[in-house]
Structures are given as structure tokens and as C-alpha cells.
Amino acid sequence: MIAKCAYISFCACFGTLARLYTDDIGPASNVALQGSFLANSIGSFALGALASSPDRETIPDAMYAGLTVGFCGSYTTYSGWNLRIARAALGQVPGAPSGAIVTIVAMATSLAFFAACFSAGCDVMKQVASHGRRLNIRGMLGGGALAGGDSDAMRNTLGMLGAAYVLLVVLLGVDGNWSRRIDWLACIFAPFGALSRFFLSRQLNSRLRGGAFPLGTFAANVLGSLVMALSFYGTKNSSSLTSGWSNVAIKAFQAGFLGSLTTMSTFMSEVVGHRDRHTPSASYIYLAATAIAAQAPVLIVGATLE
Question: Of 43, 67, 135, 266, whose CB has the highest number of CB atoms within 10 Å?
């Protein structure tokens, strides 16, 4: 368990940093790329590829958890995307259409696209396997240094995690750019969000309908989306919280902790996977319940506090 937590924490730092830089692609006015849409698409594809990789049996469980729960789970986010949809519905996003019908269509098409990306990742890896090829993921990620299952590999990972934290703290102190300070602090918060999601899933996912409704992931996405909305709207008009270190801490908490607590890639893997393991109806119920339970409170908060 310690090894899994170490891998998840280490990979969550990089997943969050990758998401923040992916979100910077394109102009800020590009509505289509807001809300981590691009990161959610790429991350869902990557998780699908990992889930169907012919190398899966050669990857230790702790390392696999780091790549899926840590990196892919933190590279994608549900709360940021959900907030963007709500703000667009309320007419708070310049250049974006607003209204209930537009919101429903935007949510449906986005979720369908993320699911398609996950399925495409699975299909690509199945094609790779059908040709008898392997990607040697374990070797690409450091071989025995990081991929081993023994105590030495675990110590190496813990050491690298500690070194990463020291580096992030140093960068946070010496970097005079406030935007980059948000990135560094977000990476420090990220492991706590990813680990919270991991333990929620372990404890709750199998408790409702025999696992057909992953309650842990549902709780993480819904609660994370609500806290995201409260923190965004609650501090938006406060001058003391929109500059300096207060602004850095709030935005880093949103991007790091809440961004990693909520996930789109794992959500898509569960939605798509339920069609095979359970029934299509279970998949649609889980999808609709998450979308409604996460979006409705955010709309109420946004309409009340804006």
C-alpha cells in the first residue's frame, strides 16, 4: 500500500503540471479549449491505452496505479470542466452560447467525445497486441529503478517524491512569477487530491449495486465540483483574495487538490467498462447521475453568488 501511495503521489505531481500546461495551449479566448477539454480528451485516450496495453501483466500493480490513478487521473479533471459548463450556461463565459438546451448539448457531446477517446485508446492497444507488439512501458519508465516491486524500488520512488517536493518548495520560493507559483503549489497539493480519490474508490466503489455504480468516484467528482464552485465564486469578488499569496493558494488548491480529486479519465473508464461488465443501462444511469448531481449544485451556487 505504501508503494502504491508513493507512485500515485509522484505521478500526480506530473499529471497536474501536464494538465496546467496543456490548458495553456491556444489563446485564452478559445472557448473550445477551456475547462481542460483537451487534457480530458488526451488523458482519457491514455488511460484507455494503458487499460488495454499488452504490457499490462508485466507492470507491477503499484506502478500501474501510479500511471492510471496518479498521472491520468490528475491529468484529467471533472471539476474544472464542470465549472466551465456551468459558467457557460449562466452566460458568464465570453463568446460561449448560453441556455439550458445548449448546456445539455455541450455536456452530452463533450462526455461522448471523452468516452470515444477512451475507447479509441483501448482499440489502438488491441491493434498493437494483435500484431504481437509490445511497448515495454516498464522499460520506458526506468526499468528496475521505478518499476520493480521490491523495497529498493519503493525507496527509490519515495526518494524521488521527496526530491520533487523539495524542488517544488524551492521553486515556489524563488520564482518571482505569480502564475508559475500557482503551478508549483498546485503540484504540491495534487498528491493529496489523488490519494483522497484513491481511498474513496477503494472504500466505496463496490458498495452500491455490486460495483455497477462506483460510489467512490461519484462522491469525489460531485463533492470536488461543489467545492470548486464555492471556492471560485466565493473568492471571485474579494480583492484581498485575488492577488498575492492568497490568490496563489486558492488557485493552486483548485487546480491541484480539487483538479486531482476529480477525474474524467477514470470516470470514462467506468462508464465504458460497465457496458461490458454489467449492463448498458447501468452505464447510462451512472453517467446521468454524475452529470446531474455535479452540475445542479454548481448552477445554483453560480447563480446565487455571481
Answer: 43
